[in-house]
Amino acid sequence: MKVLRKFYELQGNGCIVYNKIPTVLTASELLDKAMGRAAKVEVSDRNRVRYERKLSITKLDSVSNIVQSTFSKYIRSFPKSEEMEPFYRELMDAALGGIEKMDRSLKNLQWASDMVQKISRGAVREIKMSDDVAEIIRIRKAAYGRISSIIERIDPELLFLNRVRNTMRALPDIDTSAPIVVVAGAPNVGKSLLVSHLSSASPEVASYPFTTKGILLGHRDVGEGRNVRRVQIIDTPGILDRPMEERNAIELQAITALRHLDALILFVFDPSETCGYDMEYQNSLLSGIGEVFGGREIVILHNKVDMWREFGVKEREGVISISSTTGEGIEEVVRVIEERLG
Ligand SMILES: Nc1nc2c(ncn2[C@@H]2O[C@H](COP(=O)(O)OP(=O)(O)OP(=O)(O)O)[C@@H](O)[C@H]2O)c(=O)[nH]1
Ligand SMILES: [Mg+2]
C-alpha cells in the first residue's frame, strides 16, 4: 500500500516499515468468525465428562485466540499518532476531527483483548474443576455471553478504526522527505498546464481531504549523475484558490497541514484576467497563502504572457513571465526550481 509508508518513521536499521492496514471487522463480523471457528473444533474422548471438558476448553481457547490475534494485528498495523509525520498527522487530525480518537480506540482494543483472555482463562479454570457435563456447558455459554458483550461494546471503536483506515488510504502519496514544489493561484490561471510542462511524466491525480477535484502530482528529476533528486510538483485545485476567511476550521487545518511540507511555492498570476479573477483578488489570495506558509519562499509567475503582451500589459521586474501554452519562460522556472531544490 503506497500511502502507508508515510506513516512510519525510519526504523533504527534505516528501513521503512511497509505495514498494511487490514480491513477492520465489525463486532458482529468478528463474533461470527470466532464463534464459527469454535463451532467446528473437534475432540475425542470416550468419557462423557472428559469429552465435554476438552471440547469446551478447546472452543474457548479458539475464540480467545481469534479475538486476540485479530486485535493485535490491528494494533500493530495502525500507526501511533505521535510517530506520524507532522504533515500526515495534521491531515488525519482534520479529516477525523481529532487524531487522538485513533489512539484511544486502539487502547480500547487492547483492553477488550485482555478482557477476553481473562474471561476465557477464568472459565477454563472453572471447567477443569467441574465433573458435571451440564455445568461445564453452562460455564462455557456464560463465557461466550460475556465475551460477546465485550466485543459488542467496542463496536463503535471498530467502526471508527475502519474509517481511519479508509481515510489513510485516500491521502495523497507525497514523500515528505523529498523536495516539493507547490503550485498555487486562482482558478483558471493555468496551474495544471504549468504542472504538466514541469513534469517529466504525466501527473497522477491524488485525493486531498475536503477537495472534490483531487490534486495533481507531477514529478521531475533535477540535478545530475549521483546528485539527481526527484522533485514532486503539486497542483492544488480547490485547495488554495479561495480566500482563507471563507474556510471552515477543518478545511483550514487541511490547508495549514501543507506548511509542514518543505516546499517551494510557485504562485501563478493571470494578468490577462481572462481566468475571471482580477489582479486585486489574485493578490489577496497571495497574501493569504503567504500567511499559511509563513516565511516560505514564494516565486511569482505571471502566466499567459502570450495573451497579455498583446493587450499592452508591461512585464514586471522580479517576476517570471511565462506562457503555459507556448512554453515561453518555462525554462527559467525549471532553472529556479533546480537552483532552490537541486
Ligand atoms: N493563452 C493562454 N492560455 C492559457 C495559458 N495557460 C493556461 N491557459 C488556458 O487557461 C485555461 C485554464 O488552464 P488550466 O491549466 O486548466 O488552469 P488551472 O489554474 O489549472 O485551473 P483550475 O484547475 O480550474 O484552477 C485553459 O483553457 C488553458 O488553455 C497561457 O499561458 N496562455
Ligand atoms: Mg487545474
What is the general shape? elongated
Question: What kind of sheet is the major sheet?
Answer: 7 strands, mixed
Mean pLDDT: 90
Helix and strand sequence? HHHHHHEHEEEHEHEHEH
Q: Helix tally?
A: 11
| Count of the separate structural domains | 2
Task: Tell me what the CATH architecture of the largest domain is.
Answer: Up-down Bundle
Q: Indicate the percent of residues in helices.
A: 40-55%
> Quick one: how many beta strands?
7
* Widest sheet, order of strands: 2-3-4-1-5-6-7
Provide keyphrases for this structure:
alpha/beta; 2 domains; Four Helix Bundle (Hemerythrin (Met), subunit A); binds magnesium ion; 49% helix; Rossmann fold; 7 strands; 342 residues; binds guanosine-5'-triphosphate
Could you explain the architecture of this structure?
The chain has 342 residues and is of the alpha/beta class. It folds into two domains: 3-170, Four Helix Bundle (Hemerythrin (Met), subunit A) (Up-down Bundle); 180-341, 3-Layer(aba) Sandwich (Rossmann fold), CATH 3.40.50.300. It is 49% helix and 11% strand. It has a seven-stranded mixed beta sheet with strand order 2-3-4-1-5-6-7. A hairpin with a 6-residue loop joins strand 3 and strand 4 (229-235). Helix 2 (48-77) runs parallel beside helix 5 and helix 4 runs antiparallel to helix 5. The longest helix is centred in the N-terminal third of the chain and has 30 residues, at 48-77. It is elongated and about 100 Å long.
